[in-house]
Amino acid sequence: MRRKLVAGNWKLNGSLAANKGLLQAVRDGVKGQADVAVCVPYPYLAQARAALEGSSVTWGAQDVSEHAQGAWTGEVSGSMLADFACRYVLVGHSERRSFFGDTDTVVAAKFAAAQVAGLTPVLCVGETLAEREAGITGEVVTRQIEAVLANSGVDAFASAVVAYEPVWAIGTGRTASPEQAQEVHALIRARFERDSQQVASGLRLLYGGSVKANNAAELFGQPDIDGGLIGGASLVAEDFLAICAAA
Ligand code: 13P
């Protein structure tokens, strides 16, 4: 039985003042059987650590450099994230892919860099609306996963998470139906089964894209949906806690 995971992705939001109450409320409010994490902007990692250390809630970052060190102005390495006791790091979020040029190759390198530093990468995959309408959702998601498999191998996914986030569902209020999401999750798991039954059965597959308190339970009730990656609703403690409770 896979343990559910609910991860918040704060994106470019927050302030020291605003985070204080949110982190405290999440720390105090999380109960039950699911794992819970928050992926905060880099400058707030120390704050998240101070607020959450000793609780069941873990923290992480939203991106990581593919490079370990050196002349890469503006980058943050995996070992720096490990210094702040991060558990998770997102790689290949659709906003990184579409606005910052993270190609499949770059994403594969970031995934590997995260693991070298002892972090658990959350590999984000998903199709655009045009790709869905063209009927190539499966091809797109498979291509995004193949790049990482080719670089790291299937066993690397024994300590990784995959998040399916259809681009058309992110921040739009338009959630994939539980059936649409389950269909892609099943396809992803089947791809891993080809290489390793054991890795596939243990791999946590999160759904992300307009997950809210009122649709979380139905999504998380699907056989291959092992939790969620939550954007907007992770910024409101009450909403995020309700989603965690649904898991
Ligand atoms: P929303 O929950 O705001 O749609 O964002 C999803 C997401 O991109 C999480 O990474």
Structure overview:
By secondary structure, this protein is an alpha/beta fold. The chain has a single domain, classed as TIM Barrel, CATH 3.20.20.70. It is 43% helix and 15% strand. An eight-stranded parallel β-barrel has the order 1-2-3-4-5-6-7-8, surrounded by five helices. The longest helix is centred in the last third of the chain and has 18 residues. The radius of gyration is 17 Å and the shape is globular. The protein starts with a strand and ends with a helix. The site of 1,3-dihydroxyacetonephosphate has 14 residues, from strand 8. 1,3-dihydroxyacetonephosphate (13P) binds next to strand 8.
Annotation keywords:
single chain; 247 residues; alpha/beta; TIM Barrel; eight-stranded parallel beta barrel; 11 helices; globular; binds 1,3-dihydroxyacetonephosphate
User: CATH homologous superfamily, by name?
Assistant: Aldolase class I
Total beta strands? 8
Instruction: Assign the CATH topology.
Output: TIM Barrel
* Separation, N- and C-terminal Cα atoms: 13 Å
Biggest sheet: strands, sense, closure?
Answer: 8 strands, parallel, barrel
Instruction: Count helical runs.
Output: 11
The global form is globular
**Beta fraction:** 15-25%
Which ligands are bound? 1,3-dihydroxyacetonephosphate
Tell me briefly what this model is.
With 247 residues, this protein is of the alpha/beta class.
